[in-house]
Amino acid sequence: MSYMALYRKWRPDEFEEVKGQEHVVTTLKNQITHDRIGHAYLFCGTRGTGKTTVAKLFAKAVNCEHPLEDGSPCNECATCKAIQAGTSLNVIEIDAASNNGVDNIRDIREEVQYSPTEGKYKVYIIDEVHMLSIGAFNALLKTLEEPPSYVIFILATTEAHKIPITILSRCQRYDFRRISVETIYLRLAELLEREGVEAEEKRYVAKAADGSMRDALSLMDQCIAFYLGQKLTYEKVLEVLGAVDVEVFNSLMRHVAAGDTMKALEVIDDVVWQGRELSQFVTDFTWYMRNLMLIKVSGGGNDQIDLSEETQESMKQVDLVDLNSLMRYIRVFSELSGQIRYATQKRVSLELAVIKLTTPQMEQDYDALLDRIRVLERKVEEGAFSLSEEQLAALATGDSQNRLSESVSEEPEIDREGILKKELEPAQYEDLEQIMTCIREITKDPDIRNRIGNGTLSFLDEASINVGHDKKSLVLTFPGTERGQMGYRQFSKEEHRKMLMDVIGEMTGKSVEITCQTKDSIKEKDLSSVNLAKVNFEVITTE
After folding, report:
1. Most CB atoms within 10 A, among 297, 407, 511, 519?
2. Would you call 324 exposed, middle or buried from its count of C-beta atoms within 10 A (0-12, 13-18, 19+)?
3. pTM, whole model, 2 decimals?
4. What is the pLDDT of residues 467-499, one digit of tens each?
5. How far apart, in whole angstroms, are the C-alpha atoms of residue 72 and residue 66?
């Protein structure tokens, strides 16, 4: 006989073997024992949580010739064995992903007219039901609402929000939860013992399954096949799954907290050359930081930290980073986690994220500023900076505060007009003046504001209007504030930019290309960053 995958071989034969879905199993068993069986069920939940398994068990239980007292099937009668083998005509399993048309549902409507040849019920299990077309859903409505007394429909889906409300209202809905790491771990230990496989590492596989029992069994199957006949250790599991040990994360976190960019990138380089999967690395490091955050918040001993005591102790040694910085790190890597799976250059994306962590001065948001302050405080504590006696005296008298505020408030004057006159031709300078005058009129004219949209146009006030590198186009540069980011999203849409360009063209007779970008702090030092809104234009005329 050919080899059978673990998740198929150990598919539960009775309700007691279904793990992590006790709330569903108990309800269904009560319905069977009290003869309150419904005609339509909807099983919702993520992949590998037992939807199809429970559906088949339920179909077996309602047709069993000698059911147990608690409603479970006996697994001994001819009906149970036929359903288990997939040869029963009373259980019809349909994959809606490939049978999603109206004609497929019409076939079902014709079949339900015939009573079962054996047993009490005909059970239709429609998997991935959200893939049905609108026409197919409509064809199913009447049959689903009032089927013959001997028909039961069980619809299974991973995306319940895609199912029409008319279907939802006709079904009893059961939500299958993600299975806990501990439950998956215990199930793996039980099945590996039955398989006669020696394995010291099961918890990482349980965690990597992300709440899916089927994924856990598939991953374990992969690890066993790679090291067939050998004891399965933690290091071997990491190698098969392309993951890294927690000590690598500890090392990376130390370098990040110390702001040592090159050392942190060396860790990434080692991970790449070991052939580790970078998407998995990003996911695991994000979870590592999440656990580190919980350790800092709770001081350790938190039930939500699914780590061994030894691992928690090693993570406690990484005490160089404060909670605010850690939250910023998690945000950066959470964003990367959603991007890296589609990135063509995964290593570059990962290195860029690490550089963001080690150099908070690259960013200008609130969290980054706090991180920069933390770095400066550490340098002061280490004696990187020293104050003279005069400076200390000034601090003691409070005089330094006034001097500091004066120095901060002083902003060097920038000769914007001079920069433009030097870099632009007179005609280009005149064109810019007309365009900027037009933009000022647009923001004040209520009719034009209504045409473009008051809400959209209000975001224009957040942007600095800069000269493009081609010295003809304009660049709307939005700051990193909340309204600035909203403005960037609005003017990133081509229809909004085109509307603004069309209005400028109508009023000035000049065609101008407009793009937009984000920039947290605009340093107006060169032509490409001169804010035209601050320029007092004087038209240059040539003789």
Report:
1. 519
2. middle
3. 0.57
4. 777 777 888 888 877 778 888 888 888 888 888
5. 9
